[in-house]
Design a protein that fits this description.
The protein is an alpha+beta fold. It has 20 helices and ten strands. Strands 1, 2, 3, 4, 5, 6, 7 and 8 form an eight-stranded mixed beta sheet that branches. It has a two-stranded antiparallel sheet with strand order 9-10.
């Protein structure tokens, strides 16, 4: 039975061509009591230690404040959630670490500091370090005694990370590497004790990675960067001047640094996305509270249709993004369990499981960060004039949200990446995109069903619309590949269009599956509002996908081919009309009544 389950396990990116059963996904309503307690510990920490000090944190007048807050988080075990118990951590699974990241997503600058320390600062050692390196560094990082930073970006190497110029050469006695170079935008740079530093040894083509301690010497830094937002996050330029690093501090193998960077960024992407979900929930809570308290024309502004529309949209897209994140997180956990059961080393299995779902990680980084930006913008609008005042919470939320579309690879890079990875897997035969793409082409030549019966299955019409949405993506992608072949990578605008279709399909499906699973457990009446959100999101997703598809088709097709594809797109992005205004009002009334994000 297990062998059958393993054989049938969904692969990364395969959601485009395979249907998923609702009972096969994880939904946030299934958190265990232990996981809820961990989340509550994080909430309490933020309420007691972070929110009362937000202005002090952002001022950076006390350089010891952020490190001291990380110390307190370490005392509670919150820095070691992903670190195995053998090295002083809690050894939680991936989805639980996602939950922790979500809760801390509402902690503004502290969220950046803790995610850099526990993620890109610690995980390279956990996943790529040898046993001696793990024993030396992980317990101190898990406790917070040592703080970590990640040094990849350079003045001339941002998205093109492998073009970095920082160099390492072997010392005459062959006991040290001597590092010289400059890194910038280094989070936690001002107080970190340990740096993961990416360099090129001699004239190597690819990066290597080193674990560098501040105490090694030869490290200087500029003053703190002045930033638009996340002002309390330490961000420095760091200079390595004949920094002597013991040869045993080479992380993994020589020239394996770029692979380390890519794989750690996969984890960072989905964690950033889910942190953005947490930030969105915090903004909704504040906006709803304010709309209930603020009176105009003798009544609370939450009674106005324009405000309800905003609240409903914010809640709907946040719910949808949350659904997709934990679906993918569970996929990663399941893949890990399967690999370990097959005899793979645990650290390698963790990397492989995340690498398998790298497409979903890129999708969710984009979606989560753009949901947060939307919520922050509408949060300011709901507050009106007060939203523009630094006295309201929306000022900080708006400024802090903006970095997330740049962090962990810009959203443009991630859009292109998810399509690039999908097509590469298709070319390798890992995913069979060709067969369903050809079936869609054949279907274009057939007679439409003109609204044939959808059957009695729960959400049958919605599922049909979703299947067709995937067909639309396959149709446009298949035609673009045929048109441009190997040069498709040069057509970035079209890749963006394809990515938007892919993203909306994944998130809409995740939302539908979550609601379907809940309805099977509690009945349709109990899930009326969630059903509204699912249907509203599906309508919006199809509209966005149709617009992206039209833009792509018009960019590369002409004449009869263009007309046929546009007709096919219209056919595949059809959905039964519904009164979106009334559905949004029901959603908003529920949120307003609860005076918080209640899902």
């Amino acid at each position: 039975m297990e062998a059958v389950k393993e054989q049938n396990a969904i692969k990364g990116g395969e959601f485009l061509i395979r249907e998923t059963e609702a009972n096969n996904i994880f939904i946030p309503e299934e958190w265990s009591e232990e996981q809820k307690m961990i989340a509550q510990t994080c909430h309490d920490f933020i309420e007691q230690e972070i929110h009362p000090k937000l202005d002090e944190i952002d001022s950076m007048e006390n350089p010891d404040l952020m490190p001291s807050l990380l110390d307190k988080a370490g005392e509670l075990g919150l820095l070691g959630t992903s670190v195995p118990e053998a090295y002083g951590g809690f050894g939680m699974n991936f989805n639980t670490s996602m939950l922790v990241a979500e809760v801390f997503g509402g902690a503004h600058s502290f969220a950046v500091a803790i995610s850099a320390h526990t993620g890109i600062g610690t995980l390279p050692i956990l996943y790529y370090g040898n046993e001696e390196q793990k024993k030396k560094y992980l317990p101190n990082l898990a406790s917070g005694e040592w703080k970590a930073a990640y040094c990849l970006t350079e003045p001339d190497s941002g998205s093109d990370a492998n073009s970095g110029k920082t160099k390492a050469v072997l010392s005459d006695d062959e006991k040290h590497y001597i590092i010289n170079g400059q890194k910038m935008w280094i989070t936690n740079g001002g107080f970190a004790d340990v740096y993961i530093v990416f360099v090129k040894i001699d004239d190597d083509k690819n990066l290597s990675a080193f674990i560098v301690e501040k105490g090694f010497g030869g490290i200087t830094m500029n003053e703190e960067e002045k930033k638009m937002g996340i002002k309390g996050s330490s961000t420095r330029q760091i200079f390595f001047n004949d920094c002597k690093v013991p040869i045993e501090n080479l992380l993994s193998e020589r020239e394996n640094g770029f692979k380390i960077a890519v794989n750690i960024l996969n984890i960072g992407r989905i964690k950033l996305g889910v942190a953005a979900v947490g930030g969105s929930k915090g903004i909704i809570n504040n906006a709803v509270n304010y709309s209930n308290e603020r009176k105009q024309f003798g009544t609370s502004i939450s009674t106005f249709g324009a405000i309800k529309n905003k609240i409903a949209k914010m809640a709907t897209i946040t719910y949808a993004s949350e659904s997709a994140h934990y679906r993918a997180g569970q996929n990663i956990d399941d893949a890990y369990d399967s690999l370990v059961a097959g005899g793979m080393d645990e650290a390698k299995a963790k990397l492989k499981s995340v690498e398998e779902f790298a497409i979903e990680c890129a999708i969710l980084k984009v979606h989560g960060s753009e949901v947060l930006d939307y919520c922050a913008d509408e949060g300011v609008q709901i507050y009106g004039g007060m939203g523009f005042s630094a006295e309201s919470p929306m000022d900080r939320a708006y400024r802090d949200a903006r970095i997330n579309r740049i962090f962990e690879g810009t959203n443009e890079i991630n859009r292109m990446l998810c399509i690039d990875m999908l097509l590469k897997r298709a070319m390798k035969g890992t995913i069979d995109l060709m067969t369903p793409a050809m079936a869609v082409q054949k279907e274009l030549m057939s007679i439409p069903d003109f609204g044939a019966s959808d059957g009695d299955e729960l959400f049958a019409k919605e599922k049909k619309a979703l299947v067709n949405l995937k067909k639309a993506g396959l149709m446009v992608a298949g035609a673009a590949v045929q048109k441009f072949m190997q040069k498709l990578g040069d057509e970035q605008e079209i890749l963006m269009n394809l990515a938007d279709m892919l993203i909306e399909g994944y998130v809409a499906e995740s939302t539908l599956l979550r609601v379907e699973k809940l309805v099977s457990q509690k009945g349709e009446e109990a899930l009326a509002i969630e059903t509204d959100m699912m249907r509203v999101y599906l309508h919006e997703a199809i509209e966005k996908a149709a617009a992206a598809g039209r833009e792509a088709i018009n960019a590369f097709a002409e004449g009869d081919e263009q007309r046929m594809m546009l007709m096919g797109l219209k056919r595949f992005t059809k959905i039964e009309p519904m009164n979106l205004k009334e559905a949004r009002r029901r959603i908003a009334d529920h949120v307003i009544d609860k005076n918080e994000y209640p899902f």
